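Q: Structure tokens for this one, please.
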Amino acid sequence: MSAAEAIAVSMPELSTWIGRSRVDEEEITLSAVRRIAATFDSDPNKVAPGDALPPHWFGLFFADIPRQSAIGPDGHARAGEFLPPIPLPRRMGAGRRVRTPGTLRVGDMVSRRTEVAAITPKTGRTGEMVLLTMRRTVEARGEVIAVEEFDALYREAVRPGASSATNPPVRAPTDAVWTDIVPIDPVQVFRYGAITWNAHRIHYDADYARGVEGYPGVVQNGGLTMHLMVDAALRRAPDPLKCFSARLARPMFVGDHMTLRGAATEGGGMHVWAADKDGFLAAEMTLEFAA
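A: Here is the predicted structure, written as tokens:
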């Protein structure tokens, strides 16, 4: 059965997953926040109970923690546990849309409602795909802290010995107001994966990344890329973050470097983009700030 046929056969069942949800709770502990601060090169000893956290840090908590027996061969939880049983084996983050109306603080007891928002089949240059959108609502102290829609792209398996297919490269813009050169550091990638409990093997297992998924090496975590882009934007932000939308366009690899660039947009927002070591667009983001 072809991938297109498998997707078509699965869609009636997959559609029943839309709207399924679960609620998790987590305490924002001082020790966890200190580990996060150190990972992003801030002094962990300056963090204290009650401190307000940067608006995008909500995504560093509520790690999925499936039992070891429920993990699939790629390191993710097996399909059908909570994630829908999409009949494609490869899963990658594709982008997110985030609103941050509230403030998360050290010591908060927080709840997160996660909902299957959409399951959308797609056909692209790289083959058959399914886009899964999860909606997450984070609340603390009776207020909404953040609402996120996160997109994950499921793709076909790579033929043995073949390379992972990618869309044609597009040159990143160069008309930036600011530029940061950021190394894709294997230690930071490891620490970020540990914080988020991300066991996807492409982010640490070079043999798996090359031999099974067809990449040239260990893949940079797209969530980390987006986090670093927001960090770079907030260092130049005129006001507190209100919302942002991000899209991943091209994989990058551990041991290389990325170039982050940004410029103001009309209305006081900011456009930020990441280029890989060859100058091709790897990710882009639009941010808005609360005046």
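A few notes: The chain is about 20% helix and 35% strand. The chain has a mean pLDDT of 94.
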